[in-house]
Write a structure and sequence with these properties.
alpha/beta; 3 domains; signal; kinesin binding
């Protein structure tokens, strides 16, 4: 029942029963006041608010989702869980949590952002405290960078003022105009307050394909040497990843003060997916659709994808990006 309908029902019920007319002016004012208070209470109950009813971190839920829904990303899973756990359990963080997720398309970057949002907000990605920016959509014109900077600053300032537990996701950082992202540098720094607002409890997540080539080369090197992908550690990738992103003049992080001032807490590499991981993605999609799991169909869908190197067919070119549409063809 909508709030307006409930309040209308409350008013009509009182009037129809003659109760309002039976009261003296003071009592009538009291009853009407109670009705208004009830209306506000009902509205607050149904309307998402910046409080523990709507923002309640579920650490076991995030771990379970990372373990059962994210495939082939042992490094990313470990970093994300520790980073988010540590941040959300700290009642007085010194700065916002800033994560930069890197890797080729279809490896799970957007999916992980969704899992983080679902673990923090009851409404998940539909929460009004989760904000997504896509470079090609929201910041398309290079000649308007100054305007974009001003708008972005105002948007972040306004939303954090409304709720300090806000989450901001920046997609396609590799397509963002260099210099634009530096406009939000003050909000990611170690300031207690800026213009009366504290940004320390907010989360910023950047998604980018930049650095993906270096991640793939490392994964290929391990494969050629006969090593398991699980042997790859963050130290094998993080420094080279941050440097390649910082020096890439086609990246939104090109010579960025966010990197230069060490404001990005973690550069999280997403490894290219192997055939077995694609099969797991197909089975997970079947489960999500509540259809019987069919391993033969999962194999056929996985076989239909393109892999590289061309002769060995080790890694999926598009990861699990096209699984949903491919599955439609086979069921």
């Amino acid at each position: 029942m909508k709030v307006a309908h409930i309040c209308f029902w409350f008013h009509v019920s009182l009037t129809a029963s003659g109760l309002v007319n039976a009261f003296d002016p003071f009592t009538t004012t009291l009853v009407v006041g109670l009705g208004a208070t009830l209306g506000r209470t009902i509205y607050k109950y149904f309307q998402e608010n910046c409080d523990q009813k709507w923002i309640a971190y579920n650490t076991t839920g995030l771990k379970s989702d990372l373990d059962s829904k994210l495939f082939g990303q042992h490094i990313a899973s470990r970093i994300i869980l520790k980073a988010v756990n540590g941040f959300m359990s700290n009642n007085n963080p010194k700065k916002p949590l800033v994560l930069s997720l890197h890797g080729w398309t279809g490896t799970g970057k957007n999916f992980v952002s969704k899992l983080i949002a679902e673990s923090v907000y009851v409404e998940g990605m539909h929460s009004r405290f989760v904000h997504v920016f896509t470079s090609t959509l929201h910041f398309p014109h290079a000649e308007q960078i100054a305007t974009y900077k001003s708008q972005l600053q105002q948007w972040i300032r306004g939303n954090v003022t409304n709720c300090e537990r806000s989450m901001f996701i920046f997609d396609e950082m590799d397509k963002m105009h260099p210099g634009l992202i530096d406009g939000i540098k003050p909000y990611l720094d170690y300031y207690e307050k800026l213009d009366g607002a504290s940004y320390r409890k907010s989360i910023f997540v950047f998604l980018s394909n930049a650095g993906g080539d270096g991640i793939i080369e490392t994964a290929l090197d391990f494969w050629r040497e006969g090593k398991q992908r699980e042997e790859i550690e963050l130290k094998d990738l993080e420094m080279a990843l941050s440097l390649s992103v910082f020096n890439n003049n086609k990246s939104g992080f090109f010579r960025s003060t966010l990197i230069d001032k060490n404001l990005v807490d973690f550069f999280v590499p997403f490894l290219p997916l192997e055939y077995k991981h694609v099969v797991q993605c197909v089975l997970a999609e079947m489960k999500a659709r509540k259809i019987p799991l069919n391993h033969d169909v999962a194999d056929k869908v996985a076989q239909d994808l393109v892999y590289f190197p061309k002769s060995e067919r080790v890694f999926s070119v598009k990861g699990c990006k096209t699984i949903e549409s491919k599955l439609d063809f086979y069921i």
